[in-house]
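Supplementary material to the annual report.
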Amino acid sequence: MLQTVERCGSHNVASSFPELYVKAFGLMLLSRVLDDKMAAFYRAGKIQGGVFLGRGQEALSVSVGLALRPGDVFAPLIRDGAGRLAFGEPVLDAVRTHLGSALGPMRGRDGNVHRGRPKEGMLAMISHLGAMISVVNGALLAHRFQQLNGLVGAASIGDGGTSTGSFHEGLNQAAVEHLPLVLVVANNQYAYSTPNQRQFACRDLADKAAGYGLTARHADGTDLEDCLRVLAAAVEDARAGGGPQMVVARLLRLCGHGEHDDAHYIDPQLKQSAIGRDCLAVAQERLLREGWADANAIRALRLNAAREVDEAVATVQREPPPDPYTEDWCALSSRHLSEGLQNPAFSAPPCH
Amino acid sequence: MSITYLEAIREAQAKALADDPRVFIYGQDVGAFGGAFKATKNLAQQFPGRVLDAPISEDAIIGAAIGAAIHGMRPIIEMQFADFSAPGFNQIVNQAATLFWRTQVPCPITIRLPSGGTSGAGPFHSQSLESLYAHFPGLIVMTPATVEDAYSMLLEAVAIDDPVIFCEHKRLYYHLKAPALPTEAMPVGKARIHRPGRDLTIVAYSAMLHDALAAAEELAGEGAEIEVVDLRTIKPLDTDTIMASVARTGRLLCVGESFPWGGVTAEVVARVATEGFALLDAPPQRLNAKDTPIPFHPKLWLGHRPTAESVCAAARNLLQM
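Predicted assembly:
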C-alpha cells in the first residue's frame, strides 16, 4: 500500500490544526465523490452485488484513519470509505473491488466493502458484525509477543453491531488483556431498518463501556473538529498504554443501508435534527467561515477528487475480470493438501 | 516406559513451543491449571507468558488467534470440548477458512477439539464435529487415532500454513498407550492400512479405528480377513488408499462416531460409488451414531454410537451380501 506512508498519520506532521482540518476535509470529499461514483455505477447496473455508502459518516471515519500510523491495525466497516483513504487505501483498491477487477486486492473473489490488505494492517471485513474486533485483538496480542510497542488497533462498529455476542466477547477480551484497542461506535440510528429503540435498552451506548471496566468518549459525528479531537485523544491513550478505548459518535446515516434501499423508514424529524446535518457540508462551512480555505481552494479539492476517481475508474474499466478457467480454485495456502486440486469431482471445469 | 495419547498431545505442544517462538497457546483454563484434561500441564510454567487463559468467549478466542496469525504468530487454541466450538463456529468457517482465499494471507492456526463420547458425558460434552468442519473449504481436519499420530500430526498442524481442526478423541486420552514418541511420521493427508486383509475393507478414523480393529480381530476367528484403513486426516481425504483397498477386497464398510446424516462416512461411500463402482462386489455400507443427541446414560450411549459389536455385525452382514 504505497500511499499508506504518504497519507497515514499525516496529521502528526501537520503544522497546525487548520492544516489537519483541511486534510481531513479533502479525504472526506474524496470519499464522498468515490461513493457517489460507485452509487452511479450501481444504478447503471455496472456493479455486481451491493454498494454501501459512508454518506454522513465521513467525519468520524476520517478521524479514525488519520489518528492511526503505519504499523497500526484497522478493521473498517461498511461505511468507512473515508477512514480507509486516510489510513492509506488507494482509490484503485476500492474501485477494483467494486467493479470486480482481477487486478484488485480481492481479485473478484470478494467485493465492495469486503476488501483489505491484512499484512499491511488493513483487515478485510467479513459480514458478521462484531467479528473483526477480536481479530484486531489478536493482532495486538501478536504485537505484544513481538515486543512491538506503541502500536494500536482500531475497529469500527455500528449501533446494530453492539448487540452481537462478538462485540461483547471482543471488548471484554480487549479489557482482560489490556490491549490498545480503539473501538469506534457509529450510532447512525438505524441498523438497516431497525431503529435504536428496537436495538438496545440502555440510555446511551457509551453506558455499555462501564460493563467492561472502560469509560467511553462521546463524539458529535456531524462535527469534524469534535471527531478529530476525540479520536486523537482515544488513540493517544491507547498508544500510551491506557488499555482499550471506546468512542460513541451520534450521527445519522444519510443514505440507505445499501443503494438498493431507499431508506423510507428514517424518521423525518431525525433528518431535521442536529444529528441529521451533513458532516461534509458542516465542515465546508467551517472552512470558509474560519478562512482556512476559500471557495476556489474547495473547488480545486473537488476537481482533484473527481479527477482521481475518474482516472481510477477509467483504469479499472480496462482491466480484466476474473477468469473461471484460470482461477485456481484452491482455498488452501498448502496447495498439496487441497481437495479441490486432488479430487476431479471437486474441480470440474465451469459450464459454458 | 510408555506414553499416553494425552501425554503425546502435551509433549507435541511443548516441542512446538520450544522449537518456534511464534507458537503460543490460548484457551480456557489452559494456563497454570493445565487444561480441563491436563493437555497443557506445566506448559505455562515451562513457557512463561506463552500459555494464556482465555475468558469463556469461543468467538473471541478464535478471532484473536486469526488476528495473531495474520501478524506472524502460530497459535494453538484449545476448545475445552469440541462441542464448545459451536459458539466459535462463525470465526472458524467464515473468518479463518476464508482468509487465504480472499486475501492471499495464510491463517496458520491450530484448533484442538477434544472430541467424541465418553461414558456419562451427555449431549454437550461428546460431539464429534469433524464432518461439519470438513464441509467448509479452507480448513484441514485431522482425526488422529494413535498415540504416534496424535504427536506427529499435532506438530504438523502447527507447521501447516492453513487453519487445522485437530480432533483428538477423549476416549483415547488416558487408555491408549505407546512405548515411545515417534521419530518419524507419515505425510499429512495419507491414510494408513492399519491391518491388511482381503475380504472386506473397514474405513475408520479417530477412536472408531479401535472398534474396527477389535471387530476385525473377532471376525478373524470366523475366518474373515478384514482390512482396516485409518483415514488419519478426513480433509484432505486419501481417496487413493481407500480405492486401492476396495480394489483388493470388493467390500466397503465405513464407520464414524458422528451423526448419520451426511458426513465422513457418506463422503467415503459416495467417492467409492462414483469412482470405484466396478470394484465393488456388494453395496457399500456405512455405520454411524444414531440420529439423536448423544445420551447421558452409559447404557443408552453404548446403543447410540457404533461399537466393536455393531461394527462386527455390520461387517458380517456385508460379507454375506
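Chain B has two domains: 3-178, 192-319.
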